[in-house]
Write a structure and sequence with these properties.
This protein is mainly α. Helix content is 91%, strand content 0%. The protein contains four helices and no strands. Helix 2 (33-62) packs antiparallel against helix 3.
Length: 141
């Protein structure tokens, strides 16, 4: 491994550390915390995309067997992302719908059936993500 390879591997880490330092200074200067958080997420997504795509393209060009192995790995990442993000979305939905359902039920006990439907719809999002993950994993062979 050459010095250039080591520097190339350290570049994403340096980029993320620089992004954190810029965010800390921005918050200290009174900038919006929400905007700073969105910028942090955008920089992380960019580094993640670069770190995932570049090795995948390099291996696909040189070795077809390595490309197939990378495809299986990307399928695992896709399945994990489908389940994880849908569970986060379902948790947010249930976290907002459940207190509203409890409040509606406390005012009118007859509203329980209508209110619980919205809580169940939020939980359904997580089930759809799990279903997509199962479909992705069944294609790996």
């Amino acid at each position: 491994m050459t010095l250039f390879d080591c520097l190339l591997m350290a570049l994403p880490v340096v980029f993320l550390i620089g992004s954190v330092l810029i965010a800390v200074k921005a918050v200290a200067r009174g900038k919006s915390r929400k905007r700073t958080l969105l910028m942090q997420l955008a920089s992380f997504a960019f580094v993640f995309a670069v770190c995932m795509v570049c090795p995948f393209i390099a291996n696909a060009a040189s070795d077809p067997a390595a490309a197939a192995a990378n495809a299986d790995g990307m399928a695992f990442i896709g399945a994990a992302a489908a389940t994880g993000l849908s569970c986060i979305g379902g948790g947010i939905a249930v976290g907002n719908a459940a207190p509203a359902a409890i409040g509606a039920t406390s005012e009118d006990p007859k509203a329980f059936g209508k209110a619980i439907i919205f809580v169940a719809l939020g939980e359904g999002i997580a089930l759809y993500g799990m279903l997509i993950s199962i479909m992705i994993l069944s294609k790996i062979g």
